[in-house]
Amino acid sequence: MRLGTRGSALAMAQARLVGRLLEGAEAGLSVELVEITTSGDRGAPIGDKSRFVKEIEEALLAGDVDIAVHSAKDVPGVLPDGLAIVGVPEREDARDALCGATSLDALADGAVVGTSSLRRRSQLLALRPDLDVRDLRGNVDTRLSKLDEYDALVLAAAGLARLDRAGEGEPIDASLLTPAAGQGALLLEARSGDEEAREAAASLTDRDALTCLMAERAVVAALEADCHTPVAAHATLSDGLVSLDAYGGLPDGSEWVRDSLEGDAAESSALGEEVASRLLAAGGERMLSWLASST
Hints:
This protein is α/β, with parallel strands linked by helices and about 300 residues long. It is about 35% helix and about 25% strand. Helix 7 packs parallel to helix 8. The chain is globular. The chain starts with a strand and ends with a helix.
């Protein structure tokens, strides 16, 4: 079984995890990791929705790999024809993590905070307009190596955990900073007609993680959001009910809307679509129009 993955340290760690799970689930199965350089790795513009998955999906369609291992938050809401989501393993911590400080409240007025995400920028400034939020790019190790240039950094808690660096960040409550749709989750993608890959990936699927991911992806898809759009969606599941929180705002945090809704787990995608509709009605449509005209 050939697994397609990006070559970053985090992506390789995630693919190795999936490989071990697949080999453990099926006796005699041998897994090979196939490292693929994506347009995002080569510096494609932020507005390119598929920049971290396009080349891996092309390898799937060409038959060069059998299963793609993605960070779920990188996968656009609409998949190419011929491809399907075939598995979602148990999810890691979906929250963001603060590195360099114990809490957002502990940051001094005007503190310099580094982040690569417009979603994080928008919510940080909505909470703390006094912060000096600056762009910070690169892989996890690169960002952490620059901590001495900032008062704090905000990264994904899952990325730190998967690289055995969880102790270097303090998770931020999701009620303060709503995570990105799919953050902390892995998404396994394969050719629609490949039953062997589908069955292998399905054996790893955590139903709760899949249900929550579908609700979150439905929000993003309904809003037609991309990396220029400060949109967040985070779902949790309890007693057959999905609780979905969502956020949309301007990059400077000057305007924003939030909404929360609870619904039947069997209708999680419909719940996501309803939350997206409520965000648009509450002012999100005007903000999205402004963002589209300014990019």
